[in-house]
Design a protein that fits this description.
Elements lengths: L1 H15 L4 H4 L9 H12 L5 H9 L9 H17 L8 H12 L3 H6 L12 H45 L11 H44 L7 H15 L28 H22 L9
Helix pairs in contact: 4-5, 5-6, 5-8
Keywords: Metal-binding, Zinc, Zinc-finger
InterPro entries: PNMA (IPR026523), PNMA_C (IPR048270), Znf_CCHC (IPR001878), Znf_CCHC_sf (IPR036875)
Organism: Merluccius polli (Benguela hake)
Length: 307
């Protein structure tokens, strides 16, 4: 009976294989044991790491983000079985390594505390027992979250419906046959009323503005007729100009030469050169021309006398 079962498994395995895996086991006869097929396939496609490397990878495997604790435990079990086949661990230490690694690599500390997994390290449960504990705890959490969502999802419309019922009774003289008003229709009515009020306010504001402008025109014309325009005297018109002239007097050209020798850069008391009347006269002429030009440009009436 067992021999027939092995042949059936071998046949099913061959039917499920495709190239290149089927090419590797073609030389085997259909009567070959199943473990022979598995050994050849594992040698061709299995991992080539030794037991120590696999155990190191196993110890560094942590729970991924969003991964359920039960799924993480199953992945640890697969890696631990591979490590066992490569001689990385012994069969007697499987449950102990599995529990310790799960407690270390699982991020759900609340679940670990609820199941008291830290206290079970001395007498660890088997893989099947631990998996059942995790799935049961996950199912309880899922059911509780669903009930809570359903409760809060129903309670909100219930309060709103009760409020609408009271509002309808007060408006319709407590007539139970009158259906409750729809909440959305009430909002639309309120929006329409607000828009009407805004348009009325705009019309009133525009009307008041026009009335104020029309009332201001006669007052302005009356004021213009009773108060003639002020007459500006020539002295008043020239007063700002005279102030500007006084302010700019300091900018009027001044002598820049020596009155003794006619050279630039020093004054007469400090001059040690010989007198040069012709050069002094020429520089004085240039200064007068510059001052005259400045007076005409700035409107000065009386130029300062030259030395």
């Amino acid at each position: 009976m067992r021999h027939g079962s092995d042949l059936y498994k071998s046949r099913k395995l061959l039917e499920s294989l495709s190239s290149p895996a089927i090419d590797i086991v073609k030389h085997l006869t259909p009567e070959s044991p199943l473990n022979v097929y598995l050994e050849i396939l594992d040698s061709a496609f299995g991992t080539v790491d030794d037991g120590d490397d696999l155990f190191a990878k196993y110890l560094n495997t942590m729970q991924d983000n969003g991964e359920k604790p039960s799924a993480y435990l199953q992945w640890l079990q697969v890696m631990l079985n591979t490590t066992l086949r490569r001689g990385g661990v012994t069969a007697s230490d499987l449950d102990r390594h599995l529990l310790r690694k799960f407690v270390r690599g699982c991020w759900d500390n609340i679940l670990i505390a609820e199941l008291q997994l830290e206290q079970k390290k001395q007498n660890p449960p088997t893989f099947a027992e631990l998996l059942l504990l995790l799935r049961t705890a996950e199912d309880k959490r899922t059911s509780k979250a669903s009930r809570m969502k359903q409760h809060f999802g129903i309670s909100k419309p219930r309060v709103s419906s009760h409020y609408q019922g009271i509002h309808v009774q007060s408006e319709e003289d407590c007539n139970p046959s009158q259906p409750a008003l729809d909440h959305r229709s009430e909002i639309q009515d309120l929006k329409k009323q607000i828009a009407d009020l805004q348009s009325q306010l705009t019309r009133i504001t525009q009307k008041d503005s026009r009335n104020a402008k029309s009332a201001a025109r006669p007052v302005a014309s009356q004021t213009a007729s009773t108060h003639p325009p002020a007459i500006t005297t020539p002295s008043q018109r020239l007063q700002p100009h005279s102030r500007d002239v006084n302010n700019n007097t300091s900018n009027r050209p001044r002598p820049w030469y020596c009155f003794r020798c006619g050279e630039d850069g020093h004054i007469e008391p400090q001059c040690e050169s010989e007198p040069n009347p012709s050069l002094v006269a020429e520089k004085r002429k240039q200064l007068r021309e510059k001052q005259l030009t400045w007076d005409i440009k700035n409107g000065a009436s009386k130029p300062d006398p030259l030395n």
